[in-house]
């Protein structure tokens, strides 16, 4: 009966820790262990019941037959013609209770989705959220510069710890958004693929990602790590010009993108000559990589 001596606030903290929208049994059973405790926790149970009903409706939209199926799912691939802010908000809240999920794909077909739910989606990515997700892909969802900054904050507080593939396709991310996101991505040593196709950023954002300039005297040092495992980078349909191509050449020749094998620069404003310079730098970088592997490949 010691729990009954706790304040309502203290009980709220305890039972909030037991709360799992996709699996409410633990909290409900705990609250029913005695009459006094049941009375004190009734508001929490009622709120959990309402959340569970909302989650059940979302599961059906996601193609899952039940909350249990979503809780155990390894893949969520949701393609529709209009995400609501409420749906994205709820999905963000559920991110903390999806331990098995490895691939999350949200594709908006109509191009009419509003940005209202994106901050709530990223806000739900608390420390440890989506612990098994390797592929996180948003296409046609208007993340924007503010959403990119929020995603960076989520990554830095420990969300998506196993991220290997980040896709932000046609997500309305400009230079300010990519500048904010780039340091968090460079702190992800396991990151292998980045797809930023169809975003309006240009040379400033790209440079922050692949070749950040040294900080001025007295400023914080750049993030440790870098994109050492990055093997694919999609940049088509962006606003990259010759200056951005020069930054890519510097990064490739400086061995800061040593694993890069696929680089897409289709339909960008850069000249054919600037793109050719990047292509030649890619060849040099791949030759260096293969030369480093040569002793291991020897058949002698």
Summarize the structure.
The protein contains eleven helices and seven strands. The chain has 300 residues and is α/β, with parallel strands linked by helices. The chain has a domain at 1-66.
What labels describe this entry?
single chain; seven-stranded parallel beta sheet; 11 helices; disordered N terminus; alpha/beta; 300 residues; 7 strands; elongated
Describe the protein:
With 300 residues, this protein is an alpha/beta fold. The protein has a domain of 66 residues. The protein contains eleven helices and seven strands. It has a seven-stranded parallel sheet, with no helix packed on it. Helix 7 runs parallel beside helix 8, helix 8 runs parallel beside helix 9 and helix 9 packs parallel to helix 10. The longest helix has 27 residues. It is elongated.
Q: How is this fold's topology laid out?
A:
Elements: H1 8-18, H2 25-31, H3 35-61, H4 67-71, E1 75-80, H5 85-94, E2 103-108, H6 118-123, E3 135-139, H7 144-156, E4 165-169, H8 175-186, E5 193-195, H9 203-210, E6 232-234, H10 242-253, E7 262-264, H11 272-297
Parallel strand pairs: 1-2, 2-3, 3-4, 4-5, 5-6, 6-7
Helix pairs in contact: 7-8, 8-9, 9-10, 10-11
